[in-house]
Queue: 2 jobs
Job 1
Amino acid sequence: MFRRIALIATVAVGSVVAVAQAQEQTDPNVVARQSLMRLNAYNIGVLGSMAQGRMEYDAARASAAATSLYHLSLVDQSRMWPPGSDTSSIENTRALPALWDNMDDVMMRGMALRTAAEDMMNAAGTDLASLQGAIGALGASCGGCHRAYRQPD
Amino acid sequence: MFRRIALIATVAVGSVVAVAQAQEQTDPNVVARQSLMRLNAYNIGVLGSMAQGRMEYDAARASAAATSLYHLSLVDQSRMWPPGSDTSSIENTRALPALWDNMDDVMMRGMALRTAAEDMMNAAGTDLASLQGAIGALGASCGGCHRAYRQPD
């Protein structure tokens, strides 16, 4: 499972750079949500890499990444997903129209990310085993929403 | 002063979109810091606009923006400013080399932003006068660092 999660994290960071390179958004709300996703990936990347052993475990660094992720999960997104900003309507977004039809589910998934990030914040600085114990739920909270509401590459 | 602050906020948001359009960064650390700056500007823009009367005061919206800004100020930036990522060394950054020569000052300014954001979080939802009372210190904490360490447009 760790390999799968790490793969998700790697793909996420790769996608983030690709999105940044292709960035042509002018809607500040879309720029904001993509910026938030980038920062999420930036921090999850560290945790996923440590969980899978591709980066040496470092308690302080793991804790900083997890704490950052938790604070990012508390950033208000209420303006970031305006109607008409899905991938059928504008360029350079992979947000599927289904997202807007399932806002209750999206909100619930956002709360799942917040809970998973908080659990990771409380685990990441303890030791590698604790970090590994929290990575599954964290990866699942990202992947669940992406699979449902993000257009595949 | 409010006009000046609002102008700063407007210019900040404008710059953010310009940076997003010209985005060609591939260093994930630089992408991350620029993403964080964008999210700061996205939220400060709301507060500055309300302070100056260009956006109707809305307690919930002001509070959400200020709370977001506070959480963003707690995101770890320790990996975001690697040596060699200044404007003389890479494209598409306005970070001046002086930043790396004055890290203690930069850290102090970062703490000033955190304090100003916390004060704004405690003020923004009360009423417009309270928001206006907190905007000066917040704008100063942004502007102080930008004037010292960011290349002018």
Job 2
Amino acid sequence: MARLVMKFGGTSVADIDRIRNVAHHVKREVDAGHEVAVVVSAMSGKTNELVGWCKAAAPLHDAREYDAVVASGEQVTSGLLAITLEGIGVNARSWQGWQLPILTSNAHGSARILDVNGTELIKRFKERKEVAVVSGFQGIHKDTGRITTLGRGGSDTSAVAVAAAIHADRCDIYTDVDGVYTTDPRVVPRARRLDKIAFEEMLELASLGAKVLQVRSVELGMVHKVRIFVRSSFDKPEDIDPHGNPPGTLICDEEDIVEQQVVTGIAFSKDEAQISVRHVPDKPGVAAAIFGPLADASINVDMIVQNVSADNATTDLTFTVPAADYQRSVGVLNKAKGTIGFDHLDGSTDVAKVSVIGIGMRSHAGVAAQAFAALAKRNINIRAITTSEIKFSVLIDAEYTELAVRTLHSLYGLDK
Amino acid sequence: MARLVMKFGGTSVADIDRIRNVAHHVKREVDAGHEVAVVVSAMSGKTNELVGWCKAAAPLHDAREYDAVVASGEQVTSGLLAITLEGIGVNARSWQGWQLPILTSNAHGSARILDVNGTELIKRFKERKEVAVVSGFQGIHKDTGRITTLGRGGSDTSAVAVAAAIHADRCDIYTDVDGVYTTDPRVVPRARRLDKIAFEEMLELASLGAKVLQVRSVELGMVHKVRIFVRSSFDKPEDIDPHGNPPGTLICDEEDIVEQQVVTGIAFSKDEAQISVRHVPDKPGVAAAIFGPLADASINVDMIVQNVSADNATTDLTFTVPAADYQRSVGVLNKAKGTIGFDHLDGSTDVAKVSVIGIGMRSHAGVAAQAFAALAKRNINIRAITTSEIKFSVLIDAEYTELAVRTLHSLYGLDK
């Protein structure tokens, strides 16, 4: 007997038929003798509809009211799943964020979970063999008692937080893909599904644009050591292996992965823009003069490269911002031109960031150097490079994205 | 300065444009210096959609889960209206049933309001000039903490209960008609809107099928002396009289109505079925033998007429049941034939009940007799009669309904 959290996203609960499919997944685990808490998202399309109404009601809406409106989507799904479960003979009840409660910060629209009370759920597992159906994506602010939401993908975080609170053996994330891949299979058909991936690698992958899990949920899993299993809601009997294991990816501690690859995955993002500030004085304080005003404008600067100046007097500074913030960034910099003292700006939104991730990099030198050589051989120009302990990223022309991803995928032996 | 509750039904908040219209109604009252609590229903169609999903999920659904699902409709509207109000500069916040709280019984699906806490609303009227936007139709069970709903039309009851809790000067019910009429204007074009109607009369009208207000809301208004004003959400400037009063009907204490008519209104219902039990033994206990089994089957018996028996041995008993329960009633009676000892049953679903209501009947004799004469003159056969202190009802063939209503409407001087 194990204690499980099962999380189902919007496409998995899109209509009553799919909710029925979810109920059968739950019944299977209950019949196997497990204690189960289910976390559900809103039916797909519903959150967008609710958000659309909020925007139509007033362009600048109160985030607390926005949260009250959009949280209703998960409330509907949790009630419907409880009804469906009872209809097939499984004892169940729904729990809204405020009922458990799931206490959060008051950052409405992107609140952080502070505490989940799992006592009542555990009691009901024991006394009534009752499945808990918890509304994902939502909580209640601990002081004001108002409904909060956790931001897009927040139900993943709800699931991991509930798993931590009830000391679950595993948190199963049922989604419309059957696991985490070495890279996007739409770009690289030879991408492989990973059996296991370490929390830190998954954190990088999620941060770099792999949309499988909300970043915060992986952080929470890492901190509370919640094993997260990503699998498909729609797998068929023939997908199950002879030992009864469905396809999927386990996100776990580094130590639980016996054969660690040097490189685990390749991520990429085209939502980047590059800005180069030309001929700035090469003296202390210039970086602050550039990045201070951008930070004040809440613009997230990512890769930063400063060339060594040739004349010892001026230098060039290149960095990336989200493509959506490109025009605004240029405006902010031009306004600060007097303080910064640059000659001119140039930039491009036609760039992409390709990242190579692997815990093995820690103990293997020269991993990045191989990539630079392979890309050069393909005539792909690298505009900027950043590295960290377990990943490195290169900024390239957007048109080379797919070629670069495929090249690196082969280079590091990730092809199946 | 007054303190007002304003209630808006589903058609009044059907989309964002209509919610904006509602917001302007609220702003008008706020600008006039009033303290305002708004009670809203779900956007029209939403409750039906949610109910449909519950039924599709499982035919016999847990009423507690059903309530969690359907209560989400009002949650959406309250948040959207709060956003819209803030968008036009009116301080506002939404309140769900569990937040105020609105405590109810645990009769999920048709719960009764037990208590509404208005303290926080009054405090915020004073300290922040904040409009309270309260989700109608819902509450929370006082012990279990689960969401309850009040049944169809429950938002009317929410509005009156909130009005009682905050000691409102008036509860304005905005709806898609502009008041309470002497009878259904679709049947009698000369029906007049009533300026005022007494609680007791309104209670009879609502119970007899006039769909303007939920019966329970009128009861609550009567008990707590909440003046209820029924008016249209869609009235135009030219509808307002020179004193600034919009068209509508005030439901108030009998004493507040200076010129009380003998008859106030005519109600009718075609959802009736008549059953006659022929040749039952005319002895004590026979009524119990008939109506006991029907009550056990939760069938609501309405009009009952027992003829005086001619032979002192057997008699005929005629009564009405809801048309939907007709077949079931016949089944129940046939099953109990041995105990009751009747000869045979006959009946019809092709009947209608026409009711005449007026507090003035208390002090005026012969009101019903005039009706019997007028109907006889039109060759309308009366199958059964019941009377109470302030109303009487006749059961007639359904095909004569409109003629009977028009005849009585003229007879009592209700035509405009």
